[in-house]
Design a protein that fits this description.
The structure is a single chain. This protein is mostly helical. Among the domains are: 1-63, lambda repressor-like DNA-binding domains (434 Repressor (Amino-terminal Domain), Orthogonal Bundle); 68-228, Orthogonal Bundle (Arc Repressor Mutant, subunit A). 52% of the residues lie in helices and 7% in strands. The chain contains 16 helices and 5 strands. The strands form 2 sheets. The chain has a 3-stranded mixed β-sheet, with helices on both faces. A two-stranded parallel sheet has the order 1-5. Helix 1 crosses helix 6 (81-104), helix 7 packs across helix 10 (216-228) and helix 9 (191-206) crosses helix 10.
Length: 343
Amino acid sequence: MNLQKNLSIFRRLRRYSQRQLAQELGVSHTLISYYENGKRTPDSKMLIKIARKLDVSVEELMGRIYEKEHSYHYRKKRLNKTQREYVHAVLDRHVNELLEVLDLAKVKLRKDTLASLRSVVKNNADIREAVRKVRAFLGVDEMPPLENPAKLLELKGFLLLEVREEDMEIDGANTVVDGVPIIILKKTDKGDRQRFTLAHELGRMVMDIQDETLDEEKCAHRFASDFLLPTPLMYAAFGERRKRLKLEELANYKQWFKVSMAAIVMRLKDLGIITDYTHRQYFITAKKHGFYEKEPVPVEPERFTLLERTVYKLLSEDIITSSRARSLLGENKAFDYEAEVSR
């Protein structure tokens, strides 16, 4: 079962169809189909050949697969079949690896976290109440700005992971596996974008939108804005009414809020602190200065530590190999130390 699912995942990750992989291996596409649906099992020579062609180790190809049913939710973009299969393969790989690591380390996962946070949403006031409920759950007030929402969510039972693939067609995703909420972000995103996507996916998970006239993405965007830039905080920083904004001021607040200047300006407009005209003028100026591609004042990415800490623990206990640890973390870390601390 592990082999057939892993073969499908890694094949899609390399953007091969069954027929294309079969041609590369010099076999029929029917045989690849049989491998993936469990009707046939490759011998050791074929297994090595497949692993080399897919640029993975045999260990990865035979790795565990978490069998619980789950689906992915993400912003609906126009993805063709190949793009959608690739996105799901990337998500499958990283979710399975995370759950495999936690299972090996016997980490007890919380399965009731999300149920207590769900909020029925029929209007904007309900979105604010959903934000209030999540902030209360995390034990944070509306002032000052959140320092590390990723760490707070991890401590409260959410699983967070990063995907390393730069050619992902989506910004983030979420899923629930056996009651455990998981949020997936792109490692290559800038810190301010990553932070907003985290809040956006959190909003998608906790809101039960029951008004068909409400757009799910706009509701998630409003949730993220309110979560990261609460109304009292914005009034305290900018006042109730502003006629103009300086780029230097916005760059300074970007450092403090750890969200983009564009997100701050949009939030100011939503709260009525600035006019539509001031809002438009900012984006005209931002485009002129090239801020659409690169804003000033970079923000450090969020830090997800659970996977890394657990991998190091398994490595220390000789439960996984150093090569497997490197594969899981996706980094060229020096795992093979001569010194060892033991009793």
